[in-house]
Amino acid sequence: MAVAEEAAEGGGGDLERRVMEAVKASEERGDPPLARAVEVGRCVQEKGLGFPSPELGHVLVSNLCFSHNMPSLWKLLDQAMASRLIAPLHALALLTPRVIPNRRAEPEAYRLYLELLSRYALSPLSIEVGSCRDKIIKSVDDALQLSHAYGVHQMDFGHMVVLSILSVITSLIDCTLEDCGLQLTFRYKHGDFYADEGHQVMDIDVRGSSDEKRNKHREQLRRTNVLLAIEVVEKITSNKRAKLFLRLIYLNMPEKFNGLLERLQFIESHKSASQALLSANHILDSLSANVQKAMDWEYQLNKHQLLGVMVDAGPSSYLSCNSSGASRAACWISFDMFMENAMDGRQLHTVSAIEILTELTKSLKVINQASWQETFQALWISSLRLIQRDREPLEGPIPHLDARLCMLLSIVPLSIVPLVKEEYEMPSLISKGITRSYGNGAEENNLASRKHGLVSSLQVLGLFSGLLLPPPSVVNAANSAASKAAAFVSNLKTGCVGNMLHLIVEACIARNLIDTSAYFWPGYVVPSAPSKDSLLVQESPWTTFMEGAPLNGSLKNALMVTPATSVVELEKLYNIALNGSEEEKSAAAKILCGASLVRGWNIQEHVVHIVIKLLSPSVPPNPSVSGSGSHLIGHMPMLSAILFGVSCGDIVHILSLFGMEHCMAGRGGPVRSELTLDCLLLMRNSRIALQNSSAVGRMDGITDPRHSTPSQPVYIDSFPKLRAWYFQNQACIASTLSGLCNKNPVHQVANKILKMIYRKMTKAGTVSGNPSSTSSNTISGSPVNTTEDAHQRPTFPAWEFLEAVPFVLEAVLTACAHGRLSSRDLTTGLRDLVDFLPASLATIISYFSAEITRGIWKPVQMNGTDWPSPAGNLLSVESEIKEILASAGIHIASCYPRGMPPMLPLPMAALVSLTITFKLDKSLEYTHSILGQALENCATGSSWPSMPIIGALWTQKVRRWHDFIVLSCSRSPFTRDKDAVAQLIRSCFSSFLGPSITEGSHFSANRGIHGLLGQAMADQGLRLPIAPGFLYLRTCRTFHDTNFVTEVILKLVLELANKLGNEWACSGPARLRSGRLSLAAAVSRVQEVAMLGATLLCIAGGVLLVQVLYEESLPTLLLSAGEEKLVGAGPASNILEGYVMAYMLILSGAFVWGIGNTSPAYTSVYSSRRARVIGIHMDFVAAVMEGNISVGCDPATWKAYVSCFVGLLVSFVPTWVPEVKQGTLHKLASGLRGWHEYDLALSLLERGGPAAMDALVESVL
Length: 1261
Prior knowledge:
With about 1250 residues, the protein is an all-alpha fold. It is about 60% helix and about 0% strand. Strands 1-2 form a two-stranded antiparallel ribbon. Helix 19 crosses helix 21 and helix 43 packs parallel to helix 46. The longest helix has about 40 residues. About 50% of the residues are buried. The N terminus is likely disordered. It comes from Phoenix dactylifera (Date palm). One of its GO terms (biological process) is regulation of phenylpropanoid metabolic process. This is Mediator of RNA polymerase II transcription subunit 33A-like isoform X2. One of its GO terms (cellular component) is mediator complex. InterPro entries: MED33A/B (IPR039638).
């Protein structure tokens, strides 16, 4: 910009004329710099301008560069900056683009610029809001091109200050590197924004000297300027304010901060090529350390207060995971609870267990401030414990071992994949830091790569021999994995002894998490004594299949029981299932649903996707070729085989773990009362939309062309018959039926069905659909003709049949209730209905469940005459249930008074009678899994105590299922009994924390994870005591009042924190305190309490209950007047209560929302509500801090709660802070400063995003 233009912009040439005249006059008088500054200031005042004056800054700098480049003018500029006639930062910004491009030609000016920069770069800057400030902001922005360089659309004061410092630092580094002869490769360099205004001589101190002497002096000046520039940068970055400004950029503009890190790493790698850089090595190290400290800075609570001593963000003392024993394992309890909870096949996750576990791993790693090795090690150990708890499952209709193995060998490795991949996608400079030469051991450990941490965690697993013992059914697979490693290492063909580690390693190798170098780990290959079996080399049936052998009976059977080993084998099966003959399609589908799906752990995700893909075969390019019917007709053999194959309990469970069960909507699998078809379709379509738009889903990364094909949403309107049946069925469930009418087509079908099933009934006569109706409402119209062909069946479509089933059920139930139909005939008719159309079983269950919930049917006596009697073992089953619950610390009253006959509501009696008519046949396994869950759901919906009767009847039928049935029945009391729920929750805390808090002993071998979940639930029969955590996980979704659960958990958490606080603060001589609880131990135990409380709460109610906790439960608790305040609470207890509430709140949010950016699917289900919920709670806290709301809790509790909540927020989940309104953040920060928590207030604001930078800089300056 020309001088005239700048002068015009700065207030016109009149000011410049007056200023220069005053300068000239002062020089002639020989005035000192201060007097000259006074004269210049008078000129500004005469123009009616304020200070600091942007106009004066323009005049001085524009004349200095380069019209009047005299020493006196430099001194005047210095004095004007010191006197605040001009803003120092403004003057430096104007000098930077003028001096830096000319530093080689004018080393004297560059030296003086560096001196001014060293002196004034971070000087206090106080400019009142107004036109003067706006002019300075615009001038600095224009001079340094900040908006263009850093992409800031609206430059404010805070951004101007922070970005000016960064701009000057990077510019000086670039100058130094160029002056050292190094070729810069950065994307943005100082020369890109600063125009070289040409060489103009600035003759300062060397007039009258010879040219040679002058040139030598200037060359020496150039060399020293190189070092001086780095010294100035180091001095600037060592300043506390500069560190704060750099940290603001690091947190809120990481891509711009990465440019600075890039330069520092460039220096580190090239300094050996420059003698000048080598000579300044200590300065460069100090510079790097300053920048690293800016990145690593953490707030510190006031250490003069007890709270500041307890809450230390440093990793060495903050969390109990850094201790040993049970406390260390307790840090990772959420891993164990999530995995065990996922083993309940009755629930359905809306996203896959892989995504949930990935987010949980991130959260626990941050919360526990652990290294990646520690995190992965805890993850593996938790999954191994999952296997050991059910090594030999109780015999029953629903096995779980395969689902547990799927969790360990498929879900866990796949959850690690995005974590390792994420490291390579992160900005490498920020993720890896600058240099590790000055970092301590903990920092270096935290900076270690994730892949290295994974490898280390696997190597350490070898020490846990007890956990690595494979279940009996997995021994051969483990030995095969070990033998594979031995053959790779030394080409040995003998057998080897394998364990679960070998299977884990193979699973990780299959996902490219590690490589085959793991085979060479010490002790990994353990040869076994040769045996005849080990010397026999059996060819895999998959080799035979790949060589082209036909899928005949023997090969098909072998492939069904042998897992595939590669995706290539699966691809061949996939093509056969789509394009083979009818026999081949069926065989290929059965093979895919066999061992490859259940135990093909290394490729399980591929099998799952192929199976799901086959259920929706694409429409052929030329539909006319396939005929007039649906293209699905040609795939019926394949579809039938897949639907039947995936219907068994464990496969359904495995599909649910992969988040694929919603893709099976309408397949006829287990019916969940809380799910509807439209809900499943909505889940499926939402998932497909996310996958098609972003392809970020966990399984979408598989390199398979079939998976990259966009899927289309499915709507119920596309299937008119399905839609008609579905809404008809929903209407029948929603309200009672009003009888039959012969004019209604659906009712006509119901009459025909009743005629069909009536042939099996021994009772003759007509059956009325409505006991109060006349003959016009009769179902059959006339008695059944007994000579009619018994095998004759109606021929109407299945959809019409299903539509009429509810009316048939209402008719037969009504007839039975009024004595016109015997219970035996009712059961026979229902069974005949199911045999004719098995799909009607789902309608029977849903209708009976609705009728049971309505509670309008009278109970019937289960006396052995009309209905089957449980009397033979009812009392023993009830006694066993009470014994199981008592072993877990829950005591309940008897359900049935002595002498009273057992009774059930009529629909429940009919349903249980129907269930016991099915034989225990392998082909009916899916039926038993449906019926068992249906009975439990119906019993849950009924106010009548039904489960002991149901259990007694089923234990009579299947004695070998006795333990499984009784254990399942023990879950029933928690449905309606709040006292039992409260006892269960208290028992969970007692078993996890041990008796230490109440009994005074702080060491217990039975506490922690083993105390909460047990070590083996089913080793050689039912073993007592039953772990309370297991009961909680299997019953929490049936709790009638989840808000009550929140209240109980919060009350227990506060009660335990209060006891710990009182115990730590116990009075007495110091010599008598040796056995008391230390402060560190008290804080550690409080964290365990909060960890368990948050985990129990999240599992019981998920994201909705956490939302209630933030918005209602915790604010209400803080606002309460403290009527239920625990007796004897002292200051330490009050502080611990506030701390534990804050800790539990942060944990609960982190568990359901994640700690940062999540996948689109996870965000849509969980994290999307986070900003709103956090904002509401923060508004509440800010309102209290401002005095607009009064809390009823102790002031110490409130202060501890707020300080800890904000401290944990900025330490563990800083990504939540920018989602809070800026006004709320400012109110909170102001309140914290009032408590003298300046660092905490600062840390809160600096994480508020770019929008908070202006307010933060204002508060600092």
